[in-house]
Design goal:
five-stranded parallel β-sheet, mainly alpha, two-stranded antiparallel sheet, 944 residues, globular
């Protein structure tokens, strides 16, 4: 029962699981007759009020009586104003109180006309408190009580004293008192009767989740800026998301490292600046304008006008809790305080500061250029040129986001329209290489509307089409790319090839036959030498990876042997090798591409390269590496709005879950990946989802359902065609295996005939040939099955795909055992079991172990030390340990996993005993023992 309406808030409760669990325990104690009093403390906007609302709702559902009140600053001088609001629902029962106590309470609350005595009358005040105590105790005997008081620092002093009196006496009653106050404003009068429950800032993952729940949640660099500046403050996340929606100004601030604060947040933080000495406020402005905390505090103070060039200017700010001084450097305690300092200053004040900093940073041309840019409002080619040089230096290092930001600002300051458009287009291209589609679209739109140059317009069209495809609008991208390529054939071959290269990803995702054939017909019309060989090969293989495979492989090797490729060649050649089932080569090339990107941005995987590398690692048996990289890809894709990459990462994860026996989780994840997607517009995704559902059903032993899912990978009727021109073919062996169990061999045989006939020229890849032999072995007569099983396992190159090969070994062993060829069957079962245990593919490991026992062999203990060790850890601990073993520091791990360094240290502290190690140096050896990654190159690790 709730006697007052529960306040609502726009902020959903995210990331405060521990605090909610604590509140649940308190309510449980109240029902058992054990009371307590607590004050929730935290910074403004931390979520204290939301937690109080949550407590009220949960208490009401449990039948707890909820009494609520809040402190108001303008009522602090009103006697017992807060207590009257709090007790009002119970006052009807005051007539049952002992005479003097009830009378004193009613008079104190202004409900009786008897003369009121002064509050400092101690005997009378005791009667008031005893009356309140008796009223609460009587009510708690009927049902437990929850008293909630928000903003307790604004309560009148009489009510505060009454609450403190009650708090010291609720232990024996079913009464819980929950109050809330800002960390620096907890009333001292609450005393020791109230225990503190700290409401911390949200962790990185929870903050990201809350931000993504907001309407028009920001993406890309703007999203990163909001997360950085809010620093886990829920109110700041919500307000900044609202303020930056559809705001180009917000994006500009994000590029410069700070966001404008909405008025509500500005007032919250700026109030603390009043009363500071003038020199301190000016020094704070210098610190806020500096683009980092690594400038010495003495330099900032001297620039601000401290005649001694010392640190006196900082003492007042540090005493107020606004900054911290560490090793001679100054750092704001909260990023929003930095924004408040900067935002409350006038432009003239900010300009003066930026010019002074530029003068002090003559040895740092990049920072100097940015400060000069911040000090001007009008176009200035000299400053624009300095920023162009900054961008060029960043680009040479591979720092695409920083280079794009510098070029965008340079374009804004460029007086000449033609040069401005060129710089915008260059910024757009760099934003594309940084994997930021929303940024790309915004820049491309500026190019299109600001220039009449057809070359620039064409470049903007190509880049905007990339952004469309990267965010899931593949058909819209193809409807622009293919006509562009067709119009450019014969006149601008490089443009045509660029358009076709852009189209390949979209064609592979949609699986649309009309678009695929159009691209293949256009490619031969290109003149020789148009564009580079990497792109030409990519287009041919991407549109038809099964045709002329041997010729494509020879071309791939020739291109790889040449020198002088651009920086993007490893990623393009790696993706080409993956499509050609040269998985080992693909892992090496894609790993090189990822390593290059990590050197510049160690925090996150490049989503488009990362999703292909994760898939190749998974196929090659490096499941642990694939899992870790896939998690990074998912986070990056969510952050930047890369919808296809996000869904692809979900499918890769779901596949591993299914093969490890977590069928329910795998199905749920696959269903989420497919949610809201038209299968006809995304055949690659739908094929992956069907494969996951089939694997999950197989793991549970539901072979009829597994067959139905896998049969869905091919069209019905006599004219059998794969749902997608590539992906379904690799599941023909799985389909045959389920058909045997389901008694539907004839249907599987028809599909097999269709698959076996597809590759042109008879140059089927080893991987696909292995699956075709497997299917034939399962569906053929006994006289022919043995030969096909032997053929499937004969090629040692099949070791590139250990799980697929182990399944064939398992099925061959089962076939041999039924024919009582026990010795050979035992060998195959043992080989399969070793692989399945290393990969932690539990359902198949159990089948292999059962086969061994049936052959009279002793089943060995599980191998794959790394996998078994990681089983002892939570998923978060597992990720932290892997990165620490690879040599990353706590701060590097924190940046990559969106955690704090302190949390990383805590996870390592918890993991060491589980792994049997005592030092960080022992982690690599502990995890390498019995590693299941089979020597396949894993994810490159940055220096650290």
């Amino acid at each position: 029962m709730v006697h007052r309406p529960v306040a609502t808030t726009a902020a959903p409760l995210v990331g405060h699981d521990e605090e909610v669990a604590h509140i649940d325990r308190l309510l449980g104690d109240a029902e058992a007759g054990k009371g307590s009093a607590w004050v929730l403390v935290g910074e403004p906007g931390a979520g204290k009020s939301v937690l109080l609302d949550t407590a009220a709702r949960r208490a009401a559902r449990q039948g707890v009586t909820v009494l609520r009140a809040a402190g108001y600053e303008n009522e602090r001088k009103l006697v017992f104003a807060g207590l009257r609001r709090l007790l009002e629902p119970l006052l009807a029962g005051a007539r049952h109180l002992p005479g003097e106590q009830g009378e004193a309470l009613l008079v104190a609350l202004g409900l009786r006309g008897a003369p009121f005595r002064e509050p400092d009358d101690h005997s009378h005040r005791l009667l008031i408190y005893l009356g309140m105590r008796a009223l609460l105790s009587r009510a708690s005997r009927e049902r437990p009580l929850l008293l909630i008081v928000d903003d307790v620092q604004w309560l009148d002093l009489c009510t505060l004293d009454a609450l403190t009196f009650a708090a010291r006496r609720v232990a024996g009653d079913g009464i819980v008192i929950l109050t809330a106050a800002r960390t620096d404003q907890v009333p001292g009068r609450l005393g020791s009767g109230f225990r503190r429950l700290v409401v911390p800032a949200l962790g990185a993952r929870a903050a990201a989740r809350l931000l993504d729940l907001q309407p028009d949640a920001p993406r890309g660099p703007l999203r990163a800026a909001v997360l950085r500046q809010a620093a886990g403050n829920p109110l700041a996340l919500i307000e900044l998301a609202r303020a930056t929606a559809d705001s180009s100004a917000g994006a500009e601030y994000a590029l410069n490292g700070t966001l404008p604060l909405p008025q509500r947040l500005e007032r919250m933080f700026a109030d603390r600046l009043s009363g500071l000495p003038r020199l301190t406020r000016r020094a704070l402005l210098f610190a806020a304008a500096a683009d980092g905390s690594d400038l010495p505090a003495a330099l900032l103070a001297a620039s601000a006008g401290d005649p001694a060039g010392g640190l006196d200017a900082w003492f007042a700010a540090e005493n107020e809790g606004l900054v911290r001084l560490d090793s001679g450097h100054v750092e704001f305690r909260h990023p929003m305080m930095r924004s408040a300092v900067y935002q409350t200053a006038t432009f003239a004040e900010r300009r003066d500061v930026h010019l002074a900093l530029a003068e002090a940073l003559t040895d740092d041309p990049d920072r100097r250029a940015w400060h000069l840019a911040a000090a001007t409002l009008a176009p200035d080619e000299e400053i624009a040129g300095l920023l162009w040089s900054t961008a060029d230096r960043a680009r040479r290092r591979g720092g695409y986001p920083a280079a794009a930001a510098a070029l965008e600002r340079a374009a804004q300051l460029t007086p000449d329209p033609g040069r401005r458009g060129q710089r915008l287009l260059e910024a757009c291209d760099l934003a594309m290489h940084a994997g930021r589609p929303h940024w790309v679209e915004r820049l491309a739109a500026q190019v299109t509307t600001g220039t009449s140059d057809p070359h620039l317009a064409t470049g903007a069209t190509l880049l905007s089409c990339w952004a469309m495809a990267a965010t899931g609008r593949h058909r819209a991208a193809l409807d622009r790319l293919l006509p562009l390529a067709e119009s450019a054939v014969g006149t601008a071959g490089d443009v045509a090839l660029a358009a076709l290269s852009q189209a390949v990803d979209a064609i592979h995702y949609t699986g649309d036959e009309t678009h695929r054939r159009t691209a293949l017909e256009l490619l031969p019309a290109l003149t020789e030498g148009a564009g580079d060989d990497c792109r030409r090969l990519w287009v041919r293989v991407g549109c038809d990876p099964l045709a002329d495979r041997d010729a494509h492989l020879r071309q791939l090797r020739r291109v790889m042997a040449r020198r002088g490729h651009g920086p993007h060649a490893p990623a393009l050649l790696g993706a080409t090798a993956w499509l050609l089932d040269e998985t080992r080569t693909a892992v090496g090339l894609l790993g090189t591409a990822m390593e290059q990107m990590r050197r510049v941005d160690p925090g996150k995987a490049h989503a488009e390269v990362g999703q292909t590398l994760a898939a190749a690692q998974f196929e090659s048996g490096a499941w642990e590496s694939a899992w870790a990289l896939n998690e990074e890809v998912y986070e990056t894709a969510v952050e930047n709005g890369l919808d296809p990459a996000r869904r692809s990462a979900m499918c890769v994860k779901a596949t591993m879950l299914a093969l490890r026996g977590e069928a329910g989780c795998a199905r749920d994840l696959a269903d989420r990946a497919a949610a809201g997607v038209d299968p006809a517009e995304s055949r690659a995704l739908y094929a992956a989802v069907l494969a996951v559902r089939g694997a999950a059903a197989c793991a549970e032993g539901d072979h009829e359902l597994a067959f139905e899912h896998l049969r869905g990978l091919f069209t019905p009727g006599p004219d059998l065609r794969p749902l997608h021109y590539r992906l379904p073919l690799y599941h023909v062996g799985d389909l045959a295996a389920e058909a045997v169990y389901a008694g539907r061999q004839a249907e599987a045989a028809a599909v097999l005939r269709s698959v076996a006939a597809r590759p042109a020229g008879g140059d089927m890849s080893r991987r696909l040939a292995m699956q075709v032999h497997r299917a034939r072995a399962l569906l053929a007569s006994d006289a022919e099955s043995g030969a096909h099983f032997t053929a499937a396992l004969a090629d040692p190159e099949g070791e590139q795909w250990p799980f697929e090969r182990a399944r064939i070994a398992l099925e061959y062993g089962q076939w041999l055992r039924r024919r009582r060829t026990v010795a050979q069957a035992r060998t195959l079962f043992a080989q399969a079991l070793t692989t399945f245990q290393q990969l932690r593919a539990r359902p198949w490991a159990e089948q292999a172990a059962e086969g061994l026992r049936a052959c009279g062999a002793v089943v060995p203990p599980e191998v794959g030390g790394r996998g078994r060790l990681l089983d002892r850890l939570t998923p978060q601990q597992s990720q932290v340990v892997r990165l620490a073993a690879a040599g990353l520091t706590n701060r590097q791990i924190a940046d990559r996993l969106l955690l704090s360094p302190r949390t990383v240290g805590f996870h390592l502290y918890q993991a060491f005993p589980k792994l049997g190690v005592t030092t960080r140096a022992q982690l690599r050896d502990a995890l390498d023992a019995g590693s299941g990654d089979r020597g396949v190159p894993g994810r490159p690790v940055p220096d650290g």
